[in-house]
Amino acid sequence: MPDPISPPPLFRRAVRSLGAVAPRPELVVRPLEAPPRLAPYSWATSMEADIGHRGDGTDDLDEPDTSGRLILLHDPDGHERWQGTFRLVCFVQARLEAGQLGDEMLPRIGWSWLTDALDQAGAGHTALAGTVTQTSSVRFGGLQDGPDAEPPQEDDVELRASWSPTESDGDLSRHAAAFAALIATAAGLPPVGAVPLSRSPG
User: Which of 25, 119, 128, 132 could staple 163 via S-S, CB 3.0–4.6 A?
Assistant: First the structure.
């Protein structure tokens, strides 16, 4: 049985490489408790973004426009379905704009957010699989809602995916960069260094 108290060096290096990548300031990274029993060793993190996020740590991200989770699974003995010893699992939920729900192209576009992010980051991968789902929900009740308030409707796109990194040295920093790029794209953030057209000069 693997010793959970002493993770293998390859797993420790993978965790360090995932945690060392500093995302753009609009994104907030928080540690997560990894789900148990999925693999002998696991690690998880969350990333959140808001269109108006200032990046100064003072924003209220209780209900972010876009949020995601990244989970690393490791089985030193290898896993036939993974085609390796590591597996990365991600879940991303992003708020849709009015009129986007029901767009038949949206699932393909959402999936391209992930594949483009992996390709552009140079993150080697195999056995990539997942789903893209459009959801609509209506929230009832709330301390700030009056008795005659119209229940707000929220439309979201959800992406669930997993893939096996092909890097054999445990350096998964490119995958962390790809996940950050995925969250930024799903949130509709402009490319790094781009100046919004609405910003006044000077």
Answer: 128
**Residue of 8, 161, 129, 13 whose CA lies nearest to 77:** 8
Q: How far is CA 59 from CA 49, 66, 123, 193, in A?
A: 10, 14, 31, 21
Residue ranges per domain, the chain? 9-53+60-139+152-187
d(CA 190, CA 16): 28
Q: Which two tokens stand for residue 25?
A: 């300031």
Distance of CA 127 to the CA centre of its chain: 18
pLDDT tens digits, 109-161: 999 999 999 999 999 999 999 999 987 776 666 655 555 556 566 788 899 99
User: pTM of the entire structure?
Assistant: 0.82
Nearest partner of 93 among 154, 5, 157, 49, judged by Cα: 157
How distant, in Å, are the alpha carbons of 16, 58, 103, 174 from that of 181? 19, 22, 23, 10
Is the backbone of residue 84 left (phi > 0), alpha (psi -120 to 50) or beta?
left
Q: Taking a C-beta distance cutoff of 8 angstroms, is the pair 29, 77 a contact?
A: no
Torsion-angle region of 122 (φ positive above 0: left; ψ -120 to 50: alpha; else: beta): left
